[in-house]
Design goal:
It contains 13 helices and 26 strands. It is of the alpha/beta class.
Length: 523
C-alpha cells in the first residue's frame, strides 16, 4: 500500500509506510540512531528530554473544549487556535522534502470503542514506538482502514520559537480536539506521543462514551476476575500487573464501560528498566528481544549487554514492546468481573502500610488526592522522590475536573462492590523501599481472598483498615511505626502527611460531599 501526505501539508517527502519492526530497526542502525543489544532489542537516545515535560503540554481552547476542560493553568494549559494553525504549518513544512515514517494503528481493544490513529514521525525510532504501543491492524483491517480519526505528528528536531509560536520554550505537545491532532516538537521522548492520545481519550470517553478512562494497569485471574492497579510512573503499575499466574490485560491505560468491561487503550507495554533483573521481573526481562525498543540505556562495550544498573543518562530508562511479548495475556485485551482495585502510592514519609483496605468514602478521597511521590527521571528535573498529589493518579493526562472521574469511579465501586486497597510501594521509616516480594505477597493475599476474614486494626491518622497479619509477610512490616526510630518520629511524619492531604484537598472542598470529606485524614 502507498499513501500521500499532501493533505496534511507535507510535500515531496520520502514516505516509509507501515514498515515492520525489523525494517525500522535496520533504519535506526543505518541512520546511526540506534544500536542493537545482545538480546536483539534496539537502544536509542531520546536526546535533551528523557521524560515528559508537563509544563509544555497544551490543549487548544475552542468551542469543543472551552466549557468542558478544567483550565487550571498548571495541567491543562490553553493554547490559541490560530497559534496552533500557524505552528502546525511550520511543523509540516519542516517535515516536507525529507524522509518520514507513517503508521496506521488503533487505540482501544474493545471494538465498540476502537479509534483509528495515524502517526507521522520524523524518526524510525518513534515509529517503532508507535508499532509497539498501539494496536496493530491485520492486513484486512489495513485495507479497509480509510481515514484516521486522530493524527500524531512528531518532529523532535523542530524547535519552536516561544515568542512567536506561543509555546513556553522550544519543545511542545499540543492537543487539538477540533482538528483531532496531537502535535509534538522539540523532544525525542516517545512517551509524549502515547500520553497525547491517552489525554485525548480521557476527554472523549467520559464526555461522549459514558466510559471511565483510567491511568491503571489490569490483569485477570483463572476465574475471570479483573484487578486494576492505579498509579503514576515508577509506582509499579507495569511490574505488578505482569504476573505469571494472571493474564495481562494492559500495563497503563484502560477504559471501564457501562457494561462493566475493562479494556486496554493500547497494544503494548512501556516499562521502566532501571535495575531490571530476570529474577525480579522475569516477564518484562523476557520481553526485551527483537523488536523491543530500549530508551536511554547503556550497553556494555564488550558484549552489547544492557547495563540495567546504569542510570547515568536518566533513571527513567525504558523499554516498549508489543503486549504479546508477554506470554500470559488476555486476548483480546479485555476483562470482566472487576473484583479488586489497588491504589499504588510511593510514600516518601514512610507512614503508609504495605496494604490497607479502603471504604468507599476513603477510596473516593484518595482517588481525587492521588498521593504519591514523583520518582526520579519520569519528568524533566526530577532526580529524587518528590511528594506530589496527582488527581486520579494521572492528573497530567486528565482534561476534565477530577471530581468528574471520581464520581464515575465512586458509582462503579458502589454498583459492583469491588474491593479497593491502598498499596505503599515507597519507603518505610528508614527510607528503605518496600520489597517487590512483600508487595506481591500482600497483593496476592488480596486477590486470593485471604484478607476477607482476618483481623484488622484501624489506622489512627487515616482511618483505613490495616491487616494485623498476612501469611508470608513479617508482622512488623505491616505496622509502619515499627520502622521509625521512635513512636514520636512516626507520629510527626504521619501528622505532616495528614496536613498535606488536607491542604491539597482544599481546592476540591466546594465540590465535595460530607461523605467524601469523611474519607480524609482524621487529624
Amino acid at each position: 500500500m502507498s499513501i500521500e501526505l499532501a493533505s496534511y501539508g507535507i510535500k515531496n517527502s520520502k514516505i516509509n509506510y507501515q514498515l515492520s519492526s525489523k525494517e525500522l530497526t535496520e533504519k535506526m542502525i543505518e541512520t546511526g540512531q540506534g544500536e542493537v543489544s545482545s538480546s536483539g532489542a534496539v537502544n536509542f537516545l531520546t536526546g535533551e528530554f528523557t521524560g515528559r515535560s508537563p509544563k509544555d503540554r497544551f490543549i487548544v481552547k475552542d468551542d469543543i473544549t472551552s466549557d468542558n476542560v478544567w483550565w487550571d493553568g498548571n495541567i491543562n494549559i490553553p493554547f490559541d487556535s490560530d497559534k496552533f494553525d500557524a505552528l502546525y504549518d511550520k511543523v509540516v513544512e519542516h517535515l516536507s522534502n525529507r524522509e518520514v515514517y507513517v503508521r496506521d494503528a488503533f487505540a482501544c481493544a474493545d471494538d465498540a470503542y476502537k479509534v483509528k490513529i495515524r502517526a507521522i514521525t520524523e524518526t524510525p525510532g518513534a515509529n517503532l514506538f508507535i508499532y509497539n504501543m498501539f494496536i496493530r491492524p491485520t492486513e484486512e483491517e489495513l485495507k479497509n482502514f480509510g481515514d484516521a480519526e486522530w493524527t500524531i505528528i512528531n518532529a523532535p528536531t523542530f524547535l519552536a520559537e516561544a515568542n512567536t509560536d506561543g509555546t513556553r520554550q522550544h519543545n511542545f505537545s499540543i492537543l487539538n480536539f477540533k482538528r483531532k491532532i496531537v502535535l509534538n516538537g522539540g523532544t525525542g521522548y516517545t512517551g509524549e506521543m502515547k500520553k497525547g492520545i491517552f489525554s485525548a481519550l480521557n476527554f472523549i470517553m467520559p464526555v461522549f462514551k459514558n466510559t471511565l478512562p483510567m491511568h491503571c494497569s489490569a490483569n485477570s485471574g483463572k476465574d475471570g476476575d479483573t484487578a486494576m492497579f492505579f498509579g503514576l510512573s515508577g509506582t509499579g503499575k507495569t511490574t505488578l500487573s505482569a504476573d505469571k499466574n494472571r493474564q495481562l490485560i494492559g500495563d497503563d491505560e484502560h477504559g471501564w464501560t457501562e457494561g462493566n468491561t475493562v479494556f486496554n487503550f493500547e497494544g503494548g507495554c512501556y516499562a521502566k528498566v532501571i535495575n531490571l533483573s530476570a529474577e525480579g521481573e522475569p516477564e518484562i526481562f523476557g520481553a526485551i528481544k527483537d523488536g523491543a525498543l530500549l530508551e536511554n540505556c547503556k550497553l556494555v562495550k564488550e558484549t552489547n549487554d544492557v547495563d540495567y544498573t546504569d542510570g547515568s543518562i536518566t533513571e527513567n530508562t525504558r523499554v516498549s514492546y508489543p503486549i504479546d511479548y508477554i506470554e500470559n495475556i488476555a486476548t483480546p485485551s479485555l476483562g470482566k468481573n472487576p473484583k479488586n482495585i489497588f491504589f499504588l502510592s510511593f510514600d516518601a514519609y514512610g507512614v503508609f502500610p504495605p496494604i490497607a483496605k479502603l471504604n468507599p468514602d476513603q477510596a473516593a478521597y484518595l482517588f481525587i488526592s492521588g498521593y504519591t511521590s514523583k520518582v526520579a527521571g519520569t519528568e524533566a528535573g526530577v532526580t529524587e522522590p518528590q511528594t506530589t498529589f496527582s488527581s486520579c493518579f494521572g492528573a497530567p493526562f486528565m482534561p476534565l475536573h477530577p471530581t468528574k472521574y471520581a464520581e464515575m469511579l465512586s458509582n462503579k465501586v458502589e454498583a459492583t462492590g469491588i474491593n479497593v486497597w491502598l498499596i505503599n510501594t515507597g519507603w518505610n521509616g528508614q527510607k528503605k523501599r518496600m520489597s517487590l516480594k512483600d508487595t506481591r505477597a500482600v497483593i496476592n493475599a488480596a486477590l486470593n481472598g485471604d484478607l476477607d476474614n482476618i483481623e484488622y486494626r484501624q489506622d489512627q491518622y487515616f482511618g483505613f483498615e490495616v491487616p494485623v497479619s498476612i501469611n508470608g509477610v513479617e508482622a512488623d512490616k505491616l505496622n509502619p511505626a515499627t520502622s521509625f526510630e521512635s513512636q514520636e518520629a512516626y507520629e510527626a511524619n504521619a501528622q505532616i502527611l495528614a496536613d498535606k492531604f488536607k491542604e491539597n484537598f482544599k481546592k476540591f472542598e466546594e465540590f465535595a460531599t460530607a461523605d467524601l470529606l469523611a474519607g480524609g485524614p482524621r487529624i
